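Changelog-adjacent note: as of this version, every example in the card shows the full chain rather than a window. The one below runs 230 residues end to end.
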Amino acid sequence: MDNRIRPINLFSLAPLDPYCVISSLYTDPYDPFELGHVSVDMLNSLRSVKHQFPEHMRELLDDFCAVVFGGQGLFSNSSCYLVGAPIRAWQWNIFKEVRWRVANGGDRVEIIKELKRRTSLLLTREHIQNRAKDGYYNQRWQRLRSEVLEVYGPVCALCGRDYRTHGVVLHGDHIIPKSQRPDIALYFSNIQVLCEDCNMGKSYYYTTDHRSIALVPSTYGLEERISNWK
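Full-length structure tokens:
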């Protein structure tokens, strides 16, 4: 019997909550299990400015090929044989989220680690409430909050105030409250930046995602930031 730990393949099993997505990436209703097919445009959107696939995309494409072709062969830069391959919406969402987060300042290694953790770690209320007993949640949360601020900028997604101009305290808000869904408490796609006033008002009563209508300072160049992943 082989007792070695198998590496996690992100594309072989849907994450704990495939409906938890970055809403600004989807203008239409999102069905994670909708079946589509890989197109040339989809593959080209994953290339870098040098028209090559970055290392982290090659890693993801290797895993995707292993699922599509039963572990036969590795991804090659030609990529033509992938055109027409079946792909679920949640699988394509993995590519979109990694591309978007890396383009907005996230660390590619840490992002892929988080995505792989989603497939194997189910957080419970005990992980969140007993921080002194188990520091895992607290450590991961601090890192995740830093990435959220790096990507979205230090500005409240609801009222548009930022800490430099208005002196507000900024929180990482769980869109779906962690009291309701502790299993997705450490999902980047479930976190938005709110000021203390807006976060206290929202509390656990609402699940409104304000990121798609966020007001960001002009210095952050939202349109420029997202132009390379559209």
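Structural remarks: Residues 73 and 184 are 34 Å apart (CA to CA).
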